[in-house]
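Most newcomers find our protein records easier to grasp once they have seen one. There is nothing in a record beyond a sequence line and a structure line. Getting from the letters to the tokens is the skill we practise here. An example says more than a description, so a record of this kind follows:
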Amino acid sequence: MELESSHGNLLIWKRLCFTLYNFEQIVYILYSVLINDMAIPMKTSELLEIAKEACAYAREHIKQGETTPRIKFYKKSAALLDNDLTSVRKEELKNKYAERYNQRKSAGYYESSIFHNLQYLDRVALANEVADIRKQADELWMAFCALKGVEEDSTRGQSIRRHCLELCVLEKKIGNCGEFATLAFHYIQKMYPEQLEEMNLTVLGVNINRHVVVSLGKDEDRVICDPTLNLVFELNKEPEKLHSFSQSRGKNTYYPYNPEFDTLNPLVNYSPEGMLSREEIEELNQFKIEQSQAVSPSSTLGKN
């Protein structure tokens, strides 16, 4: 009888321990969920500062682009941009196409006509250069993925593609809105790794990808970083600052986003799986250098 009693007590004790263990697990899970729900999101002021840094970084490294706004846009949007960049843009074009400007000036063309022509020439020239940069970046991407055995369409493969584009853009200092957004996106990933999980960092397309910006924060409280137009703002407070883009007859046109007709499309979301380490980025950079030398071996040889 004593043996049976001891055995019964042991079973009761085991069941009690099992129940307590399960209870602990349940408490832990509930606690984790509660902590996550109570996690303090990043302040909008913090997101705005990060976005400003990223915007400045992208604009520091991209000096020209096919989709640069027209002088007309700068005139009309001086208040929106907090600056009248009309004279700055005119001076850029005069210096870049000095001979063409002087020829037309001497021929008696109106200033407005001269700058209309210079803007068209600039857009066409830069369209070709941007296309060349993207082609070079894609060739680098495919070669590197093949070397490392990475699927091109995987999250990691697409991340490598964006980094290849960035390396080529940093070299040429030319790019459109997609390149601007890529540089800003990578800057934030590099400089604020510990906050990425709570930042909801996204490359956002307006009307799929007619215009591309970077978004930070919750969807209902987005902070927008638009390096192309040098704008950083809270979307729900200043929606008029978000723009879409069209191009026709050699003209670049930016127009205010209208939620009734225009769409917002997430193009890239931050993902730990897609993050490349500094060592991997350096390896990619070294691979790019080697590829360039292989294409132009004469540049590395001395004279006979």
